[in-house]
Amino acid sequence: MANVLIIDDDISMNGALSRVVRRMDHDVTSAFTLREGLQFATSESFDAVYLDVRLPDGNGLDILPRIRETDSSPEIIIITGAGDPDGAELAIKNGAWDYIEKPSSIKAMALPLVRALQYREEKLARSLSSATGIKALKRGCIVGNSSRLTACLDLLAQAASTDASALITGETGTGKELFARAIHENSSRADQNFIVVDCASLPETLVESVLFGHEKGSFTGADRNREGLIRQADGGTLFLDEVGELPLSVQKVFLRVLQEHRFRPVGAKYEVSSNFRLVVATNRNLDTMVEQGNFRQDLLYRLKSFVIELPPLRERQEDIRELAMYYMAMFCERNGTGMKGLSPDLFEVLQAYQWPGNVRELVNVMERVVAVASSEPTLYSTHLPTDIRIQVARASLGKKPAGEDAPPDFKDTAFPTLKELRKAAINRIEQQYLQDLIVHTGGNIEEACRLSGLQRARLYELLKSYSVSLPR
Q: Which of 9, 22, 71, 146 has the most neighbouring CB atoms within 10 Å?
């Protein structure tokens, strides 16, 4: 028997789903707002959650990661009356089991639950049977424990347990090489070579020579035999950084190398073999490059056995404190200055900054901060680079409270009818009333219904129509 949570403000849909779940011999709990659903999810253990997108107090997709982060980590099925391709992509990226558009038949909405619970049961059985064999993941310099990073580490562990190719994507500075190295260090090839190839820095005329090697005299300047990087990776891992920069002519040749693990050095008569494992990284959209004819689709298929998409630092802000402390300690030890304290105002600025250069930028900033502070015992925001402090200060000044609505100005618009004016005035009054009602009751729906004289369903309908959010 499973425990299922349904978060949907549509009372009829919530009730119909609840009846189906009970007929499947599962326990069910119903919630009608984000706030209510999150309270249930964080205080009880659930195996699966039906989550609506449009709710009176916000967007269900906003709390999807928080529900996934709970101790029970339930499977989440998104249900929505207004299907959105971008919303579906966001939901799947954040770990949703399925994304269903209403109105679907109740049977169609129940089927994903059956499959999700079966998957969950099998996953639990596997984890219990292999618990004694699990070893700690070697993370190297990968710092943080946010849900986004943890999901990437789970994929890292899966990739490390196989010899399949792995593709790591993400913005510049997100730690793609760290992840590639961690895949190698946690694999059965850890005691062999980890060969790094920076595709962006390879001269196009020498790419094949560098990768495949060459024989003496095979071209002007080839005054000796040279072993290529692919051969050096024999038994270990070959890491192609910025693989999107690999010339098309080389992509075709490399595809065969990846398939056969055999190649011919430039100028050689015979092929040689290399038993390498391939990991690649890029900050470019390879699918778009395929559409533009700049990257081979057949090669991309081979690279996508495992895909790890690293989040930018601005989407894992909960890791910033740990990252700052980790690198502060590293640079203090390196400089021989002794450990320093970090003031709250330093963290406030670090958290408010957007970090376009991601973790790499944060590392450079912490190195500079430690150097600037020199022998001072505590790091303050004043030690941060001026441009960062200015950007954060300017951004904070832009957050102005909304003022009252200005009176209507009819000079440049068509003069309204009395009915239109009355309707607009009533809408403003109703919206203000609902806002005041929610503030007065602290978001307590039962109390709001009692004071307003509205039925629960009607109150939810008005809150949604006027975009009045409940406090979280």
A: 9
β-strand pairing of 226-227 with 213-214? antiparallel
Fold of 3-126: Rossmann fold (3.40.50)
Phi/psi of residue 33, nearest 5 degrees:
-140, 165
SS3 of 141, please? Answer: coil
11 CB-contact burial (10 Å; exposed 0-12 / middle 13-18 / buried 19+): middle
The domain ranges of the chain are: 3-126, 147-311, 321-396, 418-465
Q: Give per-residue pLDDT as tens, 211-229.
A: 888 887 677 667 677 888 9
183, 279 in Cβ contact below 8 A? yes
Rounded distance between C-alpha atoms, residue 343 and residue 332, angstroms: 16
CATH of 321-396 given 3.20.20.190, 1.10.8.60, 3.30.460.80, 1.10.357.20: 1.10.8.60
Q: Which helix (H) or strand (E) holds 170?
A: none
Is beta strand 98-101 parallel, antiparallel or unpaired with respect to 75-80?
Answer: parallel
Q: What is the DSSP string of 220-279?
A: TT--S-EE-HHHHTTTSEEEEETGGGS-HHHHHHHHHHHHHSEE--BT-SS-EE---EEE
Nearest to 277 by CA among 243, 240, 246, 242: 240
**Are 21 and 28 within 8 A, CB to CB?**
yes
Q: What angle do CA 251, 253, 254 make, to 5 degrees?
A: 60
Whole-angstrom Cα distance, residue 180 to residue 5?
Answer: 38
3-state secondary structure of 402: coil
Predicted confidence (pLDDT) per residue in 126-167, tens digit? 555 443 333 478 898 999 988 789 889 989 999 999 999 999
CA distances from 109 to 63, 105, 251, 339, 393 (A): 21, 6, 44, 56, 48
CATH superfamily of 147-311: P-loop containing nucleotide triphosphate hydrolases (3.40.50.300)
Take residue 5 and report the two structure tokens written for it.
């949570």
According to DSSP, residue 339 is labeled: -
Rounded to whole angstroms, how far apart are CA atoms 168 and 244? Answer: 12
Q: Are 21 and 65 in contact (CB under 8 A)?
A: no
276 residue type, one letter: F
| pLDDT recorded at residue 135 | 46
pLDDT at residue 102, rounded to an integer: 78
